[in-house]
Each structure stands twice: as structure tokens, then as C-alpha cells.
């Protein structure tokens, strides 16, 4: 199913993601890596209390409500994958992002902006592997 | 104050995902489908996000400390090791299968989609397994050195 090319909205949304990352660094001194923030809501608990991370995740989850309140309606996202594929994909995304110490936000945005060699490698790898995965599932299998 | 600001930063992040179209897995999968129904929009998301973060981080890090915290917590690991290849490779398979990564998955919970709840539950399990393995490996002196920071 084709989706509409939205360069302006996507760039604007991207700057909001960037603004959020900058604010988190400026006020809390933390990298806006969603996998790290979410994973450290789970045990084992280490040094810091999870209240700040909990508040950040609550903001993420409540964003659709805020969007609907301002815009009057919400876009309708499509999750095409079956429940069994979602379980497998969820396990891989959860494990891989924690094992690789970052995901699209921590490596793909914050890490690249910091010119981190680790994040450059990580981003290149997950982009390439995801593109190959989509190619195999959509065009070969 | 700090809690409210963390909530607002999460809210802005989630709103950004929705405005950008990144909260729609169909759009993400089309971005990854170079030879099919390719939608290059997400390159513009990354460009916008990295441009703001590139300059914003440099301004923020000029301060001796964050406004509401004692110090900046930046990743200290800088070398490229196996984990930073293996982890993203595993992550990339899951991302390519579903079109979902952690941020959009959490924001999709707020859309009330049952599929999002299934994915997030599995994702939490995957994260818990990785953290458990991480702890075991840190205790094993023969294992690779544990990187001190999660980005």
C-alpha cells in the first residue's frame, strides 16, 4: 500500500523530535534514547529513580490525545503485521535495541548528531538490515 | 518541575512522531521498501531531527551542568565493538518485520490499537531478556567488557 510523500510535515515533525531531545539534554542532561528510557523502567533497577523516565514515557503515550485535542482529529495508522509477527518483531526490537545500546532515536538521531562512531555504525547496520528484511518479506518470500 | 518537564519533552517527542508520519508503521515500511512503494518522507524526519539536535546539543553542552540535574549523562563508550553491530542487526530485523521501533510503538499505545499492546508487551520482554543477559555478562570476567551507558 503506497503512502503519501510528506516532506514538509515530516521535516517539521523531525524538528519537534530534535527539540524534545535538546530539551531533555538541557534540563535533565540525558540522551533522548527511547529504548534506554523504556528499558530502564524494567528491573533490575540501578542507580536512579524511574520517575523522570516514567513521566517521559507517559508524555509519549498521551501525545495522540494532545494531538487530537489541538488538531480535532487523529491520523489513522496502519499496523499490517499479524499478532504472531508482532510478537516476534517486538522481542527482536526490544532485545536488539537494548543489546545495541540504542535505537532509531538514541543512535539514529542523538548519536548521529553527536557524530558518535558507534552510532554511525549502529544506524548503518539497522537501516541496512531493515531494508533487506522488507525486501525479502515483500518481494521474495 | 523536573517531572513536568520530562512529561512535556515526551509529549513533544510523541507529537513530533505523529506530525512526521513516523507513528504510522505503513509509512515506515514504505520508507524501507526501496524497490517497491518507496516513500522517502522519513529521510526528512531524520534530517529535521538531526539538524536541530546537532546545534541544540552543542548549545546545551556549553553549560557546566544541566538546568535541573547535577551533571550530563553522555555515553562514554566510543569504540566500535560487536555489540553495536549485533544489537542493531537484531533490532533491524524486528523493525523491518513490523515497521515499529520503540518510540512510535509507545505512542501507538495512545491510539488504543490492540496490535500496539501486543508489540509493546513483546518488546518489554525482549528488553528484560537483554538486561538480564547484560547483568550476567557483566559478572563474567571472560565476557566482553560491559559498555557503561545505554543511549
UniProtKB/TrEMBL annotation, chain A:
Alphabetical UniProt keywords: Cell inner membrane, Cell membrane, Membrane, Transmembrane, Transmembrane helix, Transport
The record's principal subcellular location, in a coarse class, is membrane
| Membrane spanning stretches | 16-42, 54-74, 80-99, 120-140
Highest taxon in the source lineage: Bacteria
Q: Where in the cell is it found?
A: Cell inner membrane
Topology in the lipid bilayer: Multi-pass membrane protein
Q: Does the keyword Ribosomal protein apply?
A: no
> Which residues are in coiled coils?
none
Q: What GO terms fall under cellular component here?
A: plasma membrane
Q: Pfam families annotated for this entry? A: Sulf_transp
The family classification in the record reads: Belongs to the TsuA/YedE (TC 9.B.102) family.
Protein name in the entry: Uncharacterized protein
Automatic annotation (TrEMBL), chain B:
Q: Identify this protein by name.
A: Sulphur transport domain-containing protein
Sequence intervals crossing the membrane? 41-61, 82-100, 106-130
Instruction: Classify the source by domain of life.
Output: Bacteria
Q: Which organism is it from?
A: Chelatococcus asaccharovorans
Q: Which UniProt keywords apply?
A: Membrane, Transmembrane, Transmembrane helix
Query: Which Pfam families does UniProt cross-reference here?
Result: DUF6691
